[in-house]
Request: fold
Amino acid sequence: MPDTVFRLEGVTFGYDRAVRVLNEIDLDVRRGRITALIGPNGCGKTTVFALLSKIYRPRGGRILFGDRNLAEIPRREYARRVAAVHQYNAVPEDMTVRRLVSMGRTAYHGQTFSRLNEEDCRAVDRALAETHTEAFAERQVKELSGGQMQRVWLALALAQTHEILLLDEITTYLDVYYQYEILDLIRKLNRDCGTTVLMVLHDINQTIRYADDVVLMKDGKILATGGADEVVTGETLRRTYGVNAEIADVRGRKICIFE
Amino acid sequence: MARAVSKRGERIRTVLAFAVTAALLVAFVLLAANIGGIKVSFGQLLRGLFVEYDEDVAIIVQLRFPRIFVAVLGGMAMAASGVITQAVMKSPLADPGIIGISAGSAFVAVLVTAFAPALAYLSPLFSFAGGILAFVIVYALSWKGGLSPVRLILVGIAVDALFTGLSSAFNQMTGNNYSGAASIVESNISLKNWDDVKTLAVYVAIGAVGCVLCARKCNLLALSDRLACSIGVNVASTRLQVSLAAVFLASAATAVVGSIGFLGLIVPHIARLLVGNDHKKLIPYSALLGALFFLVADTVGRWIAYPYEISVDIIMSVVGGPLFIALLLRSQKYA
Reply:
């Protein structure tokens, strides 16, 4: 199996012809690692995310998934290997959690008729268990809190596949406790199941703590890639975010302190 | 335990909703058969239908039954089309009658009825073309990097006004001489015969097959587009297939009964409150409830100012207008 899951070659994208959101990006995402995509608002992180989840196609350059061009892979086949959690999701509010999570099995069935088979039920049960959402599996989604809902979205993605997860700012609406809970969960999946994770993150400290590889973006370009130690430094943070920051060692752990 | 009970409660509510609505529909069919100049007892009706010839019953079968069945089938088609349109447009305020699809269908149906009355049997197909035309215009103009519900309604109202105006203009230019065309423009179903019932039944049956094929797709479209994409749904082509079913049903109904506003909006809304958002239940229930609504509206229209008649469209507008405003005010999301 190739070591690289995604390879972006000279990828350019703009919503209008005039404005380029991404400018000839080259990027490798490695198998079995947790890769964090960071950068200031509007730097193109979410666009990269959308391109990798096949919502948009690049205007220029190409994206390889393994050794195949992403554009040529049928959506259903792709969905069996790559699952995504988006930032904003709408869903009928009277749907139960279990039914929503079982929507993750869509790619394994035809879209006209189909019943969940045993394998689907196992995958759904496993996803519910892994995300600790079984307790409210029969509840309707409108009864859930933001933290519970975010875990349900993750469960939906896990019911789909454990191979590759794309996560867009999965911690944004959560309080600190749930932020770390969900990130610990993601790291556990990565360690136990070899899940490749690509996540858009905002929090520098979470990036340092959870990411194996970091991709730092600004103005539609990639400024640096590598381990958190090399990429996240006072110098790079100043250049990208325009803030004065210092990476300090506290009790054997690196943390970022803003001046 | 409490959960299991509430789940069972939900199922009971669904079954009850279907049973009560079906019973009411049957009751209203019998009631509607008995409103007008000729009155027969229930026993006489059954005897006349199944046992021996009865002159009064024969008249009722010839004159009133076609109208009743047209109302039932038309109501089913309009309501089912409303649910599906709302799924496609992702807006609970979309309705083929309001956003111009019915008006587009009606216009083409009027032209066909006037110029080629021999093709009446095929008129739903022609009006399907008109419906598609209106749908494409509305969809294209309200799309701006995603569907905006407000734009959708605004563009829809304009398209509706245009096609309704064209139909009326045509009708008046020809001095209301083509009674078939006039009946579509005025949504008047008082002169429908068994041929109309047959035509409508065939197209509604085709539409029903479409609904069965669409129910699961509608559930997938209820998710946000990005989510649907990433679980492996080809959103654009799914939306297209589902739209075709919606436009087909609306057009078939319009070709026979004319453009009826608000039915496709109010019925699905009430249906959602009763059976929830799962389209496997929502579409059939809306169809049933739509049949009941249409028949009640038509019957009320026949009875309220007897011997004069008020058309279904007018009844639906009078009841539907205020309800539509109430829905707008209730959902801050869309207004």
Summary: Residues 8 and 14 of chain B are 10 Å apart (CA to CA). Residues 72-334 of chain B form a domain with the ABC transporter involved in vitamin B12 uptake, BtuC fold (CATH 1.10.3470.10). Chain B has one domain: 72-334. Chain B touches chain A through 24 residues (CB under 8 Å).
